[in-house]
Amino acid sequence: MSTNISQEVYAALKEFGLTDYETRAFIALITNGISSAKELSDRTKIPYSRIYDVLVNLENIGFVNVISGRPMKYQAERPAYVAKLAKKQIEEKYQRIEYALLEKLEPLYGHEENIESTPIWILNGDVNKKINEMIRNSQKTLTIFLHIPKEEMLEEYFESFLFLTEKKVDINIIVDQNYLKIKNKNIWRKLTSVAKIQVINNVLFDGFLFDYDEMVMFLTTFFKLSIKEEDMVFLIQESRLINYTKTYFKMIWSMGEKFLLKNYS
């Protein structure tokens, strides 16, 4: 059996941490079924002297099962199982990173500094107009966190999103699937045409991150407050908070799943 595998699949497996040989061997087992080491070596052009090390590594991370016999055969795990396994390993990896950064290194940071002011302000007045301006001023990336997605807000900003696509600005949206209620399918169709959208179990807040340089955060959803039915909106330009948010985004983006409108119809 043979099939065309896109480079996107190879790139995704390598991004997870597989080597080129491991990626080729795993895909060959998926596409050709149970195989011996010699058969795999012949199909993938992986040197026979290396193929056993490759298969042992794949077995150790749970991607491959060994079938006893003479010769031994190898079988790939189902891709759906491997996806869950990979997601779990990534989550554990970032938990270790987060623990090291926040619990061990953060208390050691900046004790000698004398910080006179922190560049954080409350946005007043026409907040939507200000956010629209900031969206349109983005030069490279716009990152949107949606803890409680508001379709009316997304509709209001859509023309600005469209403007960014003409500037070739990357738009990434991460959505909390626990609060995702689709009423206006059209706005979500339009969003998928201009942005990459991932869904995840828990997004901490609603906010916009502009070029990893400054951020608008809706604190009412973060603290679960309601202040006269209005949002408490902060403009943040403090570099450490921006860096934490950037790291947080990369972590939850890697743990999320691609948004498909049909799953929420």
Automatic annotation (TrEMBL):
PANTHER family: HTH-TYPE TRANSCRIPTIONAL REGULATOR TRMBL2. InterPro entries: TrmB-like, Tscrpt_reg_TrmB_N, WH-like_DNA-bd_sf, WH_DNA-bd_sf. This is TrmB family transcriptional regulator. Residues 13-78 form the Transcription regulator TrmB N-terminal domain. It comes from Promethearchaeum syntrophicum. It holds the Pfam family TrmB.
